[in-house]
Amino acid sequence: MFTLDGGWRSWMEQLTGLLSDLDEGEQVRLGEPAEPARPSGLLRQRRTNPPPVRYVQFIGGPDVVTVECVGSASFGGQWTMSRETEKALERAGWSWPVPGSAPCFRRHGRHGEAMWLAESALSALALLGADPATLQLSEASSRTVVGHQ
Fold first, then answer.
1. What is the Cα–Cα distance from 96 to 73, expressed in whole angstroms?
2. Which residues contact 104 (CB under 8 A, 6 or more apart)?
């Protein structure tokens, strides 16, 4: 069971506030910072892929908010998860990707369910072993992207 303590409580407050005002076309992402691809090889001309990161993101739609959680490498996602972790996400209400969609776990909620959406996302990050102290928040709309720390 997920317990809101320490850094998780702070994220809960921030996310609940942001999600309460999330409009159609806006996105909020909470996750580990992505490292840039690094040069490799003899002449450092090739770039290695950046390491995978744990994240959740919220996408405002006309009627619902879609929440995405990093997908398991077992179905093409970025994060290597055990079968037990995949099942735990499923038991917590996260849906597996449908064919043709991005390889991530998803769930949906109404615009008025900001607290429930935030708690669902934070519990998923905690289950995946994310450290709340290392997470970063970013917001995007169809026009601008703003980073927060």
1. 12
2. 68, 69, 70, 71, 77, 97
Q: Which two tokens stand for residue 138?
A: 């970013």
CB atoms within 10 A of CB 124: 26
Q: What is the pLDDT of residues 80-107, one digit of tens each?
A: 999 999 999 999 999 999 999 999 999 9
Alpha-carbon Rg for the chain in angstroms: 16
Q: What is the DSSP string of 34-98?
A: PPPP-EESTTS-EEPPPPP--EEEEEE-SSEEEEEE--BGGGT-SB---HHHHHHHHHTTPBPPP
Lookup: tokens for 80: 């290597």
Residue in this structure with the two tokens 């840039």, named with its chain if needed: 36
DSSP state for residue 31 in the 8-state scheme: E
Model pTM? 0.84
